[in-house]
Design goal:
By secondary structure, the chain is mainly α. It contains 14 helices and 4 strands. Strands 2-1-3-4 form a 4-stranded parallel β-sheet, with helices on both faces. Among the domains are: about 70-160 and about 240-290 and about 310-345, no CATH class; about 165-220, no CATH class.
Length: about 350
Amino acid sequence: MAAVQVKYRPVGVLAVLILLSTLVVISLKSNRKTREWKNDLQPTRGALRTVPDCPGYCACLRYKDPGCTEKINLVFIRTDRTGSAALASMFHRFGHERKLEFVLPRGGEDDLCLGWPGPVQLKHYRPRHTHHFNLLVERTVYDKRALHGVFPHGASYVTVLREPWAQFKSAFHHYRVGTVVGIQGDDPIAEFLQRAQLYDDVFTSPAAGSQRPEVPDGVSVTRNPMAQDLGLSERSWYNVTAIKQHIKTLEEDFLLVMITEHLQESLVLLKRLMCWRLQDILYWPHQYTDYPLRLDNNSDSQHKHREWSLADHMLYEHFNKTLQHKISKQGEDFHMEVRNILNMP
């Protein structure tokens, strides 16, 4: 069988070469634009730069203070009914992404916290696997000496506080306080605050233990719970001088005290103080519930609650004022970051 000879016409070859060259140029341009787009989404250590057609979100992703080094050692002191569970999940994500080491409880049936309602001790947590721990986000009571034993190389301490009247109503509902102590009627909060000491003794007694499985005997969920978690001893709960001294100590020890009612601003401040990325402070609120007690704003009850939970009110008022002062010193780029968090889909 005779071989078939294929003759290439010069015009056809030239057309093929032009087509291939065009495809190569298009591919190179596409790859370059892809790289530019990816780079625009990477945080940098330089000053804030706006990106054409994306002046907000991308600019926030790019922002970091010049010369800022990411901090990875953190102790988060959780407080009850303040949104701390959502923040703990956020800190867990931060640590897992970087393969950091957490201080973890030993995990027995009655050992799911790090010593709470007391400070952490060696018997409460698992041995470390690396050179030192990086993060503590499980529940414990703040005690500087105890925590120094876990973080001898230093860590940044943060916590969160919620407006005490709102926090009280949330705890009263969540722990079914009215039901546990047998209050009848349409206004269980007002009735509770009329005889707060009596009802609190009933709630914290061993006899009521089966009705409040989350709370150990003797632990009040309605009287200064945030001050308890932040290490203020019960004998100082109504000593104004002792409370002010404890506030001064916390101010020296803590990098930031966040406020639930200003959580976005608090998180942007945390991001800047820790030199984190915007992605690191994104969170999904959970365990949100609505209930009639949320709308209870009886002024007489609020006044009685302040007397009942004085330390919590003093803590909140001081650190809320401190946070507002810190916010007032920020520039427009700070407020732009806050707006972008609020507008996240």
